[in-house]
Design brief:
The chain has 88 residues and is mainly α. It has one domain. It is 62% helix and 5% strand. It has a two-stranded antiparallel ribbon. A hairpin with a 4-residue loop joins strand 1 and strand 2. It is elongated and about 45 Å long.
């Protein structure tokens, strides 16, 4: 496997986690808030510590990091059933 393929897998995993929070997590939270089921609205811009990044971007970043962890686990285990979505 070439270095470009390895890097693209990790970029894809980070991007998938980051975008998943922005689209699915925050989208569902917005829907639940609309029907008065969730007390907090989506896309909260409350600054987080220590860098004062908006809360929804911080969550998206950390989900991207978990995507990297998942890609590393898939790479080391080689289990195709566990990691079918990351196989390029």
């Amino acid at each position: 496997m070439t270095q470009k393929v390895k890097l693209s897998r990790f970029l894809l995993a980070f991007g998938a986690g980051f975008i998943a929070v922005l689209v699915f997590h925050q989208g569902l939270l917005a829907l639940l808030h609309t029907v008065n089921f969730a007390p907090c609205p989506a896309y909260q811009t409350i600054p987080t510590q220590p860098f004062n990044v908006p809360q929804f971007l911080s969550g998206a970043f950390w989900e991207g990091i978990w995507g990297l962890v998942w890609a590393a686990v898939c790479r080391t285990t080689g289990d195709s059933d566990l990691c079918f979505w990351i196989n390029i």
